[in-house]
Structure prediction request, 344 residues.
Amino acid sequence: MKPLGALLAVLLAASASTAQERLTVDEYAVRLQAIRSALGDGRLEDARSGAGSLRSARIVLGGELLATDTSLLAAVEAVADTAQAAALGRRIAVLEKSLPRSSTPPGPAASDRALLERLRAEQTPRPIEKGGLVAELALRPLSFPERVLAALQSAREWLGRGLRRLLKLLLKLWPQPRPAAPEASAFNLNLGVVALVAIVIAVLGVLAYRALRRSPGSPGPARSQALATSSSDENPLSREADEWERYAAELAAAGRRREAIRAFYHAVLMALFRCGALHYRKSLTNWEYASAVPPEARFRPAFLELTRIFDREWYGHDQSPAEALARSAQEARHILKAIRGAEA
Prediction:
């Protein structure tokens, strides 16, 4: 019986180690305080270890299991220097103050429901007043080499798409071989090759001339492709923020409201990437981008509302109403105006 009991104890210990750790709100606050202390003392390895062990934990509150702030803990795991550690310490302090504390045991189910309702009311985004400013937003303007590289990248993609379409058209127009005398066949073939080479050289010259004249801020190529649907529309990095905004206005004028909502959302994402508030990662979802916005940022509620509108209209509807487009344009332009004002 003793070997069987030892085996059962080992199995129970293994199953308990794979289960998610459950913490009360006070225990969660204590763990956050320990991570903040490690960041303040320069013990970055201890802070990373504490954040990694806390990411998979669950907080017990009112009979429910709540997830921890994974975006903040992931940032702590990736901390590399003392400057980042100080900024993350301030964010953890803000999170600690927002946690509900309780020194008494939980009350009956009715009080738990009341507490949950109060927490939901506190987490509801408040409307942003017009003319508001983004506080403490560190903007990083693009340098001249970065602007040149972005322009060259956009021109290369545009040239590649144009060449592919041209080659497909030429293959369709290429004449089929017909039976003829050997001398006539050779002459026709040489003439066709010369004509094809001349057309390709002419098209490449025109494309190169337009690419050289195009500046990073000029709206020419973006406007010429404004209503042409392509796979690049899914990538927010395929256009600058102002180009996405113009593209959204043209789509809205054409009655393509659902695509216009996506263009407004990509304009805000691109502006946040450029100013350093967010960092582009292809694997992140829209709501993971929203959760990565610092809690102290004043434009966070507007970005959450814009994300909610985009997810609902893009993934939940085939056509979007005019009210959804108007709301999306209002939130996007408010955020863009605040970012550009801070940059100026």
